[in-house]
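Entry for pyridoxal-5'-phosphate complex. Fields follow.
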Amino acid sequence: MLENKFPHVRPTYLPYGRQWIEEEDIAAVIKVLRSDYLTTGPKIEEFEQEVAQYVDTKYAVAFSNGTAALHGACFAAGISDGDEVITTPMTFAASVNCVLYQGGKPVFADIDTRTYNIDPKKIEGKITNKTKAIIPVDFTGQPVELDHILKIAKKHHLVVIEDAAHALGATYKGNKVGSISDLTMFSFHPVKHITSGEGGMITTNNKEYYENLLQFRSHGITRDKDKLKGNHGPWYYEMQFLGYNYRMTDIQAALGTSQLKKLNKFIELRRKYVQMYNEAFQHIDEIVTPFQHEDGDSSWHLYIIRLNLDKLTASRMEIFDALQQQNIGVNVHYIPVHYQPYYQNLGYKKGICPHAEKLFEGMITLPLFPSMSEKDVHSVIEAIKRTIGYYRK
Ligand SMILES: *Cc1c(COP(=O)(O)O)cnc(C)c1O
């Protein structure tokens, strides 16, 4: 029989992320089920207003999920056939797919080796007369260098669509993420900071974007008298462009609103656990802990360590497996988007973003979510120390 080098450090499996639903969340959902509206009722506007207030922005538009919200943002930004959009390879596929939905062409700029976010210095070299927008991603919850990116955008008349799926509650130079870029997207998928089951939101200070987003979310249809070309009766509406059904339900919005009340507590717990990880790992030479930018305050969606593989006798695969054997639900975020077969078939080659490609090789995501306990955090630390100790050169 194979010797089990890595017995469990805990009796149950610890996932890398998980929602935290409490009785008041359940009660909020049930209340909607008993009400007159299941979808696009009063709960949608309430959720939108709460999020807009939280991030300190004028407008917010809820969507059925974050990906649909990104699609809406690309539409509002006017991205269409042949337009180029500069983004990062170190993200989830949705950040890039949304450009393709509008017929645009994603252009990858490499990442900063410390923050893993898109490197503003790499953006300018990618700008052509076809460039329309930039989609920076606040990877792991750490805000991108917005001042620098917005300056480039202004100079070249580009729209900035910030993918803040990881960054609800993060701040940049004292301002909440969501209030700074032209359009900002949040996701309420269960692993994100707060959940509505599925759900997404765009925040913006631009009224025209706001109105276009509302119409895009519902088939391109409007009933707004100021917008109608004709007027044929009180039942009259017009479909003025091709939109989608990307509406969020009131059921989801009620859950989201209930969760939002607890966001600050959730983030505080995440920060506390990050502190514990950082302290435990700071003297382990085989591990690089996350870099913290002085201009930004991360909301800590993910805690990613990087293995210094030169100092280890094992591959990332072996270390990943060893941690899984110990009941620690490690993960990898993300396979660079241009590695995906679909993007390879579009002609994106490996080698176009050497920093992202190299750093990806050593990345492992450790469990981090507010409903885990300090004991859970200690079990992760124990497993990491044991595994690294075993494979130390
Ligand atoms: C989760 C996520 C999305 C998509 O959000 P959904 O709500 O799952 O559609 C987009 N970008 C990033 C970086 C994400 O992590």
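NOTE: DSSP finds 13 helices and 15 strands in the chain.
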